[in-house]
Amino acid sequence: MDTIKEHWEKIYSTKTSQELSWTQDVPETSLGFIHSFNLPKDAAIIDVGGGESKFVDFLLDEGFTNITVLDISEEALKKSQLRLGKRATMVSWILSDVTEFKPLHKFSVWHDRATFHFLTTGEQIEKYVALAAQSVKENGYMAIGTFSENGPKKCSGLATKQYSENDLEKTLTYYFKKLRCITEDHITPFHTVQNFLFCSFRRAA
Fold first, then answer.
1. 94 with 115: CB under 8 angstroms?
2. pLDDT digit string (tens) for 61-111?
């Protein structure tokens, strides 16, 4: 059995971005939440499980100057760096399993689209939530996209966990106050549908 890291290295080594179900050409929902936070351009933003996502490209396009991308897959980060070219030097890149991440400073925004639902045990979820809380400044923000109650039960060969708005709020409630939630259908590059729950939260003081 591959380790989780080996699993993701294999995925990113053998598939193009158009063969990955979570690929988006324009991360409109994520950007919408970022805009709703009214951040200064030097706000510290971390994209958790950023992989090959173009979210970082759009943040750079908008003039954000303090961006970190974290992923468990070295191959995924290399592909993003190659795509960005010289602009890759404007981003901090962290190779880590999110549950083992040790933040060196706090962030204004914790953004996660499609990582959280791969954590399926209570222990993994508790570690993630505590780590996110530790990583986000007081009154900072979280924008999280995860599979809804109608989302897939498996993705990329791994089991996933589904959330209702109430479930997600209860999971995060000790540290984070819900601001708003939406559900949306993500159309994969191969024209299947994944239903996502996307919510924003504020870190409690």
1. no
2. 999 999 999 999 999 999 999 999 999 999 999 999 999 999 999 999 999
- pTM for the model stands at 0.91
**Spatial distance between the Cα atoms of 50 and 141, rounded to a whole number of angstroms:** 17
Which of 115, 75, 122 has its CA nearest to residue 97? 115
How far apart, in whole angstroms, are the C-alpha atoms of residue 161 and residue 177?
21
Judged by phi (left if over 0) then psi (alpha if -120 to 50, else beta), residue 38 lies in left
Reference 195, options 7, 16, 21, 11; nearest CA is 21
Q: Please, which residues have CB within 8 angstroms of residue 72's CB and are 6 or more apart in sequence?
A: 4, 5, 8, 49, 95, 96, 97, 98
Q: Helix or strand or coil: residue 148? A: strand
**Domains of the chain: residue spans and CATH:** 4-9+26-203 (3.40.50.150)
| Cα distance between residue 82 and residue 73, in whole Å | 14
Task: Tell me the longest C-alpha to C-alpha distance in the chain.
Answer: 45
